[in-house]
C-alpha cells in the first residue's frame, strides 16, 4: 500500500507487490520491509521466523464502523424483512433499534463486555486488527456509560484494538419525555463531560435520518462536541440525503452509509476532507442498494469500507466478504478494496500509525496462504488469513487454532 493516495481511484498497477519479501519487527512496530535475503544480511541479529510455502502478507484490516456491543438478537426482524416488511416499518412497529436498546439495557456490564470481546476476537480471526465499536443502544446517560465502560474494558482484553464511539444520538429514546433537541441537549451537557473525565471516547456519532435526528436537531449537539474537542462522525444518507452535508459542514472525520447519496452529495464529499465509508454489510443485510463507491472514487473521495456489524441491519460481520462483494457490484479494483479496509479505513478513525506495511507503523499483519494477492478478494472472504500479528505479536495461527 506504500505510496498510494488517500483520495480517489487507484489502479492495480499502483500496488507494490514485494516478492520474496520480509518484514523486520521491533517491539510493536515495523522497522523495515524489503527483500528477505537483503534484510537477513542487514539485520544479522534478528530472530527469524520463516514462513514455509507461499504467503501473502497484508496490513491488518481496520473496521471503522461497528455496533458489536449489544444484547439480544434481531433474527425476528431479519425474517420479517425477508417476508416483506421494510426496515423503517419494523422500526415504527416497535422493533428495530429500540428492540436492541431494550435488550442491551437488560444486559449487565459483564455480559456486554464478554460478548464484545467474543465478537471482536472473531473479527480478529478474519484479519481485523483494529475495530471501531459504537454505543447507541443505551440511550440514557447511565446506559450509554454502561456500554462505553464495557467497550473500554473489552479493549483491555480483546485481541484487536477497539476504538470507542459515543452514538447516544442513535434515535430519540421512546421513553424520553421531551423533544429531539431536549434529549440531545441533555446528552451534551450531562454525558459529554463524563466521557472526557473517564476517557471513554473522543468520538461523537449521530444518525441523521427521518427516523432519527434532523440536520437542524443536530446543529447545537455537534457544535458542542467540537467545542469540547471531540471528533465527529455521522451516519449519513442511509435512506435519505442530508447527512453528508451535515458531516462536511461540521468537518466530520467520516460520513458513513451513503447508500442514498446523489451526485450532489458525492461532489460535496469528494471536495472535503471527510472520509466516505461504505457499509456493504448493511446493504446485504437489508437487501438494499450499495453505496455508490465507484462514483465516489471517480469524483475523488477517500473511500473506506466497514462492516457496520450490528444485530439489526448488518448481522453477518465479515468485513472481507462484504468488501469483496462491494467490489464486484461497484467495479472496484483490488487496490481500492484493499485500501478501503486498511489505510483509508485507518484515516476514517484518524489513525496515522497503521494500515500500510511501512517502517514506523504498527506491526499489524494479516497473512494468507496463497501465491497471489488477487486470490484474497477472488475467494470473496472464504480464504481466511492463516496468521495474524497485532502490535508485533503473533496472536492467531490457524494451524494451531482449536
Ligand atoms: O448503521 N443506521 C443506523 N444504525 C445502524 C443499525 C443499527 C440497528 O439496526 O441496530 C446502522 O445500520
Ligand atoms: Fe451503523
Number of domains: 2
The helical percent reads 25-40%
Head-to-tail CA distance between termini:
32 Å
Count helical runs: 16
Strand order of the largest sheet: 4-5-6-7-8-9-10-11
CATH architecture of the largest domain: Alpha-Beta Barrel
Global structural class? alpha/beta
Q: SSE string, helix = H, strand = E?
A: EEHEEHHHHEHEHEHEHEHEHHEHHHEHEE
Mean pLDDT: 96
Weakly predicted, low-confidence segments: none
Return Rg in Å: 21 Å
CATH level-4 homologous superfamily of the largest domain: Metal-dependent hydrolases
Report on this model:
The chain has 402 residues and is of the alpha/beta class. The protein has 2 domains: 12-58 and 356-397, Urease, subunit C, domain 1, CATH 2.30.40.10; 61-348, Metal-dependent hydrolases (TIM Barrel, Alpha-Beta Barrel). It has helices spanning 36-42, 75-82, 87-92, 97-106, 109-125, 141-157, 180-197, 215-227, 243-249, 263-270, 280-286, 293-299, 319-330, 334-340, 343-348, 374-378, and strands spanning 21-26, 29-35, 55-59, 61-63, 128-134, 161-169, 203-207, 231-236, 254-257, 275-278, 303-305, 365-369, 387-390, 393-397. The strands form 3 sheets. The chain has an 8-stranded parallel β-sheet with strand order 4-5-6-7-8-9-10-11. A 4-stranded antiparallel β-sheet has the order 3-12-13-14, with no helix packed on it. A two-stranded antiparallel ribbon has the order 1-2. It is globular, with a radius of gyration of 21 Å. The model has no long low-confidence stretch (mean pLDDT 96). The structure holds N-(iminomethyl)-L-glutamic acid and fe (iii) ion (FE). Fe (iii) ion binds at residues 65, 67, 235, 308, 310.
Amino acid at each position: 500500500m506504500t505510496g498510494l493516495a488517500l483520495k480517489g481511484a487507484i489502479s492495480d498497477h499502483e500496488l507494490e507487490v514485494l516478492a520474496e519479501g520480509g518484514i523486520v519487527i521491533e517491539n510493536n512496530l515495523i522497522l523495515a520491509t524489503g527483500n528477505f535475503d537483503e534484510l537477513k544480511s542487514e539485520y544479522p541479529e534478528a530472530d527469524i521466523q520463516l514462513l514455509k510455502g507461499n504467503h501473502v502478507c497484508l496490513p491488518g484490516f481496520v473496521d471503522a464502523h461497528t455496533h458489536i456491543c449489544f444484547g439480544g438478537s434481531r433474527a425476528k426482524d431479519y425474517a420479517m424483512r425477508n417476508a416483506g416488511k421494510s426496515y423503517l416499518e419494523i422500526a415504527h412497529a416497535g422493533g428495530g433499534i429500540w428492540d436492541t436498546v431494550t435488550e442491551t439495557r437488560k444486559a449487565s456490564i459483564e455480559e456486554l463486555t464478554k460478548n464484545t470481546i467474543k465478537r471482536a476476537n472473531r473479527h480478529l480471526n478474519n484479519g481485523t486488527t483494529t475495530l471501531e465499536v459504537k454505543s447507541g443502544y443505551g440511550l440514557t446517560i447511565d446506559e450509554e456509560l454502561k456500554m462505553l465502560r464495557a467497550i473500554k474494558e473489552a479493549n483491555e482484553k480483546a485481541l484487536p484494538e477497539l476504538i470507542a464511539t459515543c452514538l447516544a444520538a442513535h434515535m430519540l429514546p421512546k421513553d424520553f419525555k421531551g423533544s429531539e433537541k431536549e434529549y440531545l441537549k441533555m446528552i451534551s451537557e450531562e454525558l459529554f463531560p463524563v466521557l472526557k473525565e473517564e476517557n471513554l471516547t473522543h468520538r461523537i456519532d449521530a444518525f441523521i435520518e427521518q427516523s432519527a435526528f434532523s440536520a437542524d436537531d443536530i446543529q447545537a449537539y455537534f457544535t458542542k462536541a467540537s467545542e469540547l474537542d471531540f471528533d465527529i462522525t455521522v451516519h449519513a444518507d442511509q435512506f435519505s440525503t442530508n447527512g453528508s452535508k451535515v458531516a462536511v459542514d461540521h468537518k466530520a472525520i467520516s460520513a458513513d452509509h451513503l447508500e442514498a447519496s446523489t451526485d450532489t452529495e458525492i461532489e460535496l464529499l469528494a471536495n472535503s476532507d471527510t472520509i466516505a465509508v461504505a457499509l456493504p454489510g448493511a446493504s446485504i443485510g437489508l437487501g438494499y442498494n450499495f453505496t455508490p463507491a465507484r462514483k465516489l472514487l471517480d469524483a475523488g473521495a477517500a473511500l473506506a469500507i466497514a462492516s457496520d456489524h450490528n444485530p439489526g441491519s448488518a448481522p453477518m460481520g465479515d468485513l472481507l466478504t462484504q468488501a469483496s462483494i462491494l467490489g464486484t457490484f461497484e467495479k472496484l479494483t483490488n487496490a481500492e478494496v484493499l485500501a478501503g479496509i486498511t489505510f483509508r479505513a485507518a484515516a476514517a478513525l484518524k489513525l496515522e500509525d497503521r494500515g500500510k506495511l511501512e517502517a514506523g507503523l504498527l506491526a499489524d499483519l494479516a497473512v494468507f496462504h496463497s501465491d497471489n494477492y488477487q486470490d484474497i478478494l477472488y475467494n470473496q472472504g472464504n480464504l481466511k488469513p492463516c496468521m495474524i500479528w497485532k502490535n508485533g505479536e503473533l496472536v492467531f495461527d490457524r494451524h494451531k487454532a482449536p
